[in-house]
Amino acid sequence: MRLPPALLPALLTGLLVIPLVPHAVSADPVAPPAPAVRDFGNGPERNEVAADVPVRAETRTAAQAEQPGALSHDRGYPRRTRLPVPPENPADASIKLGLVPHHGIAPRLNDLQQRGDRVSAQVIGRSYGGRDLYLVTVTAPESAAETREQERIRDRIENDPAAAARDRKLARRYKAPVFVNANIHGNEWEGTDAALRVIEELATSKDPEVADLLARTRLYFNITANPDGRVSGVRQNGAGFDLNRDFVTASQPEVRAMRQIMIDAQPVTMIDLHGYVNGTLIEPTTPPHGANYEYDVFIQNAYANGLGMEAAVNGLGYTVEKDGVYPAQIPFRDSAEGWDDWPPIFTPQYAPFHGAVAAHTVEIPLRVNGSDYTQQPVEELRRRSAINTDVAAAAIRATYAFVHDRHDRLIADQIEVFRRGSAGEPPKTVPLGIVPGFGPEDVYNTTFPRAYVITGRRSQAAAARLVDHLIANDVRVGRARHAFRADGRTYPAGSYVVDMRQPKRGLANVMLEAGADISPRVDAMYDISGWSHGLLWGAGVDGVTSLRVRADPVKAAAPTGSVPRAPGALALKVADAKDVLALNDLLAQGTAVTWADGAAIVPASARPAARAVAERYGVAFTPAGPLANPSAGTAAGAPLSQVRIAAAASADELFTLRELGFAVTPVSTAALNAGYDWSGTDVLFVSSGLSYTALSPAARAALDAFLTTGGVITRGGTGAAFNAAAGLLTATAVAGRGDANGVVRVLSTGGQIGNGSPDHSFVYSPRWFTGLGPEVTVEQSYAAEGPLVSGHWRPDADGAGGQDAARGQAAVVSGRDERGAAVVLFGTEPMFRNHPKGLFPQVARALYWASSVTGAAVKG
Ligand SMILES: [Zn+2]
């Protein structure tokens, strides 16, 4: 049980920890959120969905390409790297708060590296917007040989944990790694300034305690995880993504850089500095708890460090009366639910899979972003930022003191986590009362299969993507030397095998397992509750109970591209994002492609171009056979050309459409009212920020004219409203509960858009379609069982909008409206945060179909 809420200021329990249901912010806002700076109001700050924030059109240049960095182990410390200094930017949003702007960080770090022998800084990558990401290592000097020795121990802890556990001298020789991550949300600034302050203290201190600390630890600081957002004063990075939702997908370069820090440094403890929650919120969290952690180990250390940080923060002496600062709070202890560690999309919920046995979100107290940033006087903002910096610095100091005190135990616990994984031990049920207040409501378990087998039975390219993603996450993958049988199935040689006897099995499982429907156990969740690379990424993934096969470890998936030898036209089934990229490349080259039954048909004359894209993207062409027109050697079907999209869509959808190689122009109600030239558009995509009824008469007339020649694809409530108002397809959209989300079982029913889709889809604020007119084809429907496989989906208070109501209902429909426009309506969410990779081809097929049939009618 938790402490009675009376111990918390009433303000806090209602305001900060219990999320509003349905979410104040859904993936599908009715009104377009126009400004780049969003005011998140007083809702729980993690409770944001990146999907609904539009992003300005930004083009990446070669110079902005990612430069991933890794910690090298062949040089000692300090390293005294001269960091390049960016040009001064007087518009940096940090300046108003009296905080360090991004261009001020490199000079500070260059100076600190010169002021002693404890500080080393490096550039570990670049943000989406092309800004340098800085990693600082603070430790006592090491020779190159000593650094190699540290790396050998780290490697042994991970890869030979049983031996490491027996080595009594190991902890004495090993510097415990600590990771401090700052400013992952760009408009939660002060973690950066606190990190710089603490680094300076450590660099210059004469205190023997500090010398001892640095002899026994390595302290890693990611100075600002989100420089784009810091400079612009927004939560997201330059691509409009919430980086603290991206860890299972790693779509953004900033997240890939953080992931690499955690793999290379293997921290025993990490903290992630956020704002703003008053009093300071310090994890561990409420239930539900992620089921793939070694939670007995984790909660003991995390709670201890949480208490230590709380004491340090409260010890600063700030008060409600004098400063407006409430005492710190620990959700695990102080709240029943609403601040959970269920999805590993957050940094501290991802770090434990790489060995962090204590990991925390810390929310510093005084709000300086949103409306406060624009409306509060500068002096007040700076007063708040100064306090916030003190609080963040106190949390950092408490954490390294904790690691210093508990040094040997934290290392032993990290070894134990990897040891259980390597040994394939069954999951442990955490004993009740392991820490005060740990009750039955805190117990979450999963099961581990003996192995996962990954095959290309649906798409070789999809299997390769998943394998490469697992390897990038430091999950071990092997490739079967010969065909083998498991659980009554035969798998071909070359199938990939994830042996679950491995140190990071928790990470493998949390990505590959189906997950769980936790609707019955929890009233409300903080963010998404379902994800699954196994079900949503388009590869064939089976958990098996036995493993009898020789598998060779792989460093990358094998090449997958192929073109059949037999002469004649070729077909490319659009079954994976790589197929979409290849097809868009061919179209960009002007190849004469036709579209028939969900596949692209490439004439025999274009075989050299097909061979080139097969190699470039790893896609497999097949003989076109009956799809081709044998007499002329040309292809049947409708002519296809590059699809030019006007998109009123969320940031993640824009990113995904562009990533697939489509030409996308963002539009909105305002953009259309300002006068929009439709002549360069083939398909309009509507999911956010466009209301047909809010268009001016002139804009509506122009759009109506487009609808006689162009196609329309919609998603969600905004899309469904557009369909109704514009009089497109005869269909009534029914809304499921607004906060329902997760992986759903679906049935694809024949149309060329649904055909070839995975048996699962993803929903957030799900919708379904009833009252279908004769012109409407059901492409996909929610399964009669479930339909939720994993996630959280309850009925509304009136009993409607739940899973039961959605059973068997149409989830994706298509049709030609009376004007001739080809229209597809999605009630699912196939591009959510760039995660469900296996669903992207469904959107692409909708685009190709809509553009080919509508365009063909006009082009004659
Ligand atoms: Zn935050």
Please describe the topology of this protein.
Elements: H1 10-17, H2 102-114, E1 119-126, E2 132-138, H3 144-159, H4 161-166, H5 170-173, E3 176-182, H6 190-204, H7 208-216, E4 217-222, H8 227-232, H9 253-265, E5 269-275, E6 281-282, E7 286-289, H10 295-314, H11 320-323, H12 331-334, E8 340-341, H13 347-350, E9 358-364, H14 370-375, H15 378-405, H16 407-423, E10 451-455, H17 460-472, E11 478-480, E12 484-486, E13 489-491, E14 496-499, H18 505-512, H19 533-536, E15 540-544, E16 551-553, E17 570-573, H20 577-588, E18 593-596, E19 599-602, H21 607-617, E20 622-623, E21 628-629, E22 634-635, E23 638-640, E24 644-648, H22 651-659, E25 663-666, H23 669-673, E26 683-686, H24 697-706, E27 711-715, H25 716-725, E28 732-735, E29 741-748, E30 760-764, E31 767-770, E32 776-782, E33 788-792, H26 803-806, E34 810-816, E35 822-826, H27 840-859
Parallel strand pairs: 3-4, 3-5, 5-9, 7-8, 24-25, 24-26, 26-27, 27-35
Antiparallel strand pairs: 1-2, 2-4, 6-9, 10-14, 10-15, 11-14, 11-16, 12-13, 17-19, 17-20, 18-19, 18-23, 21-22, 28-31, 29-30, 29-32, 29-33, 32-34, 34-35
The structure holds zinc ion.
The site of zinc ion has 4 residues, from loops.
Would you summarize the structure shown here?
The chain contains 27 helices and 35 strands. The chain has 860 residues and is α+β, with helices and mostly antiparallel strands.
Q: What is the mean predicted local confidence, pLDDT?
A: 91
For the biggest sheet, the summary is:
10 strands, mixed
**Small molecules in complex:** zinc ion
Please provide the count of β strands: 35
Radius of gyration (CA) equals 27 Å
Choose one word for the global shape: globular
Percentage of residues assigned to helices: 25-40%
Q: Number of helix segments?
A: 27
Q: How big a fraction of the residues is strand? A: 15-25%
Structural class by helix and strand composition: alpha+beta
Oligomer: single chain
Uncertain segments: 1-68, 856-860
First-last Cα distance: 71 Å
